Amino acid sequence: MKYQGIDLPPQYAGNNWSRNFLNWVEQQAEKDALLKETLMLLLEQIKLLRQLLLKTERKLREMRKTKYAQKADLACSVAGIGPTTAMLFLLETGDINRFKGFDSLNDFVGLCPDTDSSGDTHRDRGITTRRHKQLRSALIEAAWQAIKTDPALMDSYQTLLKRMKGTQAIIRIARKLLRRLRAVLLSGRPYQKGVIA
After folding, report:
1. Which pLDDT tens digit goes with each residue over 36-49?
2. Fewer CB atoms inside 10 A, N or C side of the chain?
3. Which helix or strand (DSSP H or E) is residue 127 part of?
4. For residues 169, 175, 181 and 187, what is the CA-based torsion angle, rounded to 10 degrees?
5. At what angle do helices 151-161 and 166-187 cross, to 10 degrees?
6. Contact 109, 143 (CB under 8 A)
7. Domain residue ranges in the chain
């Protein structure tokens, strides 16, 4: 839109692609014959992607109520973990017992530190680049939500902030969430808020 010199009205300046915004884009497309075809194809693509997302979410809700009901409820008992993240975790990890321990699960998700060693030099490179992209992102987002609702996690986060950046601290909180998820799925008991893990 900016490339074509079309300025967005203030009410559509945010990142929310509402139905009203899509209608407005369609109206703008009608004004320019050269731009119309391109914009209409892009709008059609957006609408198709939204329909696919709705179908996927319906299927996830259906699966959550049947085959994965008990495990999904356990996962959702962990602060910050919602139904979508719980289902993503359960579907991607499969049987939690297939991981020998927490470190194995942590390696799979990609929340473990990465180092670069050569002879006498040793450099820390942050978290590993080898990861399960969607699962790691979902757990980091869940960690941001968890510190808002769980006092123990907020306390841990505040303590970590004294010695590192917020983005580094939230990785450690995400690791705590992963540890909690593993624990509730192995024990079969819901998580108790406020417990330091």
Report:
1. 888 888 889 988 99
2. N
3. strand 121-127
4. -120
5. 150
6. no
7. 10-62, 68-187
Distance CA 177, CA 80 (A): 8
**Is residue 173 within 8 Å of 156, Cβ to Cβ?**
yes
Helices (H), the chain: 19-31, 33-65, 69-76, 83-93, 102-109, 133-149, 151-161, 166-187
Structure tokens at 56: 């996927």
Residue 146 tokens, joined: 């968890």
Return d(Cα 84, Cα 80) in angstroms, integer: 11
Instruction: State how far the Cα of 155 lies from the Cα of 10, in Å rounded to an integer.
Output: 39
pTM for this model (two decimals): 0.71
Place of tokens 């192995």: 186
- Tell whether the model's pLDDT for residue 122 goes beyond 70: no
Look at residue 129 and give its three-state secondary structure.
coil
Torsion angle defined by CA atoms of residues 135, 171, 125 and 96, in that order, rounded to the nearest 10 degrees: -40
Closest CA to 193 of 156, 157, 146: 146
**CA–CA distances in Å: residue 56 to residues 9, 61, 80, 118, 187:** 32, 9, 21, 46, 30
